[in-house]
Design a protein that fits this description.
It contains 3 helices and 2 strands, in the order H-E-E-H-H. By secondary structure, it is mainly α. It has 2 domains: 1-41, no CATH class; 52-93. Strands 1-2 form a two-stranded antiparallel sheet. The longest helix is centred in the middle third of the chain and has 22 residues, at 43-64. The protein is elongated and about 50 Å long. The two termini are 32 Å apart.
């Protein structure tokens, strides 16, 4: 799994270094630009991500599985929108 990585100036390096140190990602030379690094999820991190996504789907189904499909889809879209807005908001807010 390859992660899309913003430019170096847009990234806080300490969390990336921590993720590399803890074995969640591997830092490799970018195939497009040797001056840049590409981050690859390790197999262990990929398994963890898959497990977390499975848990999220199961929790969502347990909470709203009885809703009509259109309502579940609409609600999931709202949750994605909220998550995106929270992640994209300035840290000072």
């Amino acid at each position: 799994m390859t992660a899309s990585v913003p430019r170096a100036g847009d990234v806080h390096h300490a969390p990336i270094a921590d993720a590399v140190r803890d074995g969640f990602v591997r830092r490799e030379t970018s195939s497009r630009d040797a001056r840049r690094a590409a981050l690859q999820l390790t197999d262990e991190a990929g398994k963890f991500l898959h497990s977390a996504q499975t848990f999220q789907r199961q929790a969502f189904d347990a909470l709203v599985g009885h809703w009509p499909a259109a309502d579940r889809t609409r609600f999931a879209g709202y949750l994605e929108r909220l998550a995106t807005e929270v992640l994209d908001s300035p840290e000072d807010s």
